[in-house]
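User: What would this chain look like folded?
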Amino acid sequence: MTDPVDVAVIGAGAAGLAVATIAAGLGLKVALAERGRMGGTHLNAGCIPSKALLAAARSAAGVRDSHRFGIRLPPPEIDWAAVRAHVRGAIARAAPNAGAARLRGMGVEVIEAAAHFTAPDEIEAGTRRIRFRRCVIAAGSAPLVPNIPGLGEIAWLTSETLFDLADPPGHLAILGGGALGLEMAQAHARLGCLVTVIEAGRIAGQEDAEMAEGLREALAVDGIALREGVQLTRVARDWEGMTLELSDGDRFGATHLLLAAGRVPRLASLDLVAGQVQATERGIATDAGLRSLTNRRVFAAGDIADPEGTGPRSFTHAATQHAAVLAKRMLFRLPARFDAAALPRVTYTDPELAQVGLTEEQARAAGHAELSILRWPLSENDRAVAEGRPAGLVKLVATPQGRLLGASLLSAHAGEMAGIYGLLIGRKLPLSALTGLALPYPTLAEAGKRAAEGFYTPKLLSPFVKGLAGWLRHLP
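Assistant: Here's the prediction, encoded as structure tokens.
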């Protein structure tokens, strides 16, 4: 039986859920197919559980550091079962917003089965065939499993299995020094585990080198061993767990191995050939408006979308931005395109590392020969000093004319401040918009404002301005 719908959605992660709820809210007939758990990675194996675990770890670190404020407490005792209960509770509290019952209440037909194309205008999900006017592929991505000799002999972990551990790892080895790897390294170290991070390049390789150095120092304080510039070449099972061999000849033992070296789009089961949908190993090939290059009925959103060959943006907030673009372009036929220029990304370690726009290295590589680099250390921020957290830096990259190209922040709550810089970059506002902004005192956000003021200070103190001020003082 073939049922016609206005919009068919494959995948119930952040992007698929947003598209389905918007379309259903507008009165369209919507069918959504999901083969796994509703909510996708961000709810079940990504943002929610990882941030819940980080919160528990931050609490433990706060107890250990309380003596800095004249408060003496015994070392914290980690109840792993209770920590797991906290993580599961966070997922459970957030789950209803992504649940099938909520969607069905909005009129969305939810099919709990895998979906694949049978024709350019038709998908099959379970026993159902659905003909669509528009289809959104939002099937997400999966952890990358690299081809490493011996990996098949051990029970490795990914973000999809890490939070199911009944007992804490004795020694957790993490392959990958990106956001996930570093977040989970710090969380487990603060919860009493030995942790080693293996990174072929440098940690936080996409981020500004100055910020990565500051984060490296912070992670060292937590006792995390960082092995940078080496590759994992072999894994062998032993009586304690496993032995890992590195490209520099070093070997060490671990009880668990977390694979955090990247993600790959979930393409294999979609039968894209039948749907006449073009894809590469990076994802569904789309234009800037997220429409398939080869099937005008089909769009892509979330981790699986590869707009204009720029690569996927594996962030929940990118997925919701995709949904907003699709609402305009697919549902209202308005011109809309996804612009990643002002899209923030955050590594939720302590301190957090946030980036909006271009890093200094990226700006120079993009052809900006002349740049204004503006810095303000957190050690000069009154709020950071008062709270005993002076480590960190705000670094702004601007053109000589005062247009912000990028902002790098290493600070507590850096992610909460990133939106200011996203607004400046996205709206192409000058730095004067930030220097003229009234911020409450004392706040960490003032550090960015002080950095921006450094762009104008030399001009205000120039001989001409000084002379002008001296002349004006004689006027009545």
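The chain has a mean pLDDT of 95. If you want, I can go into more detail on any region.
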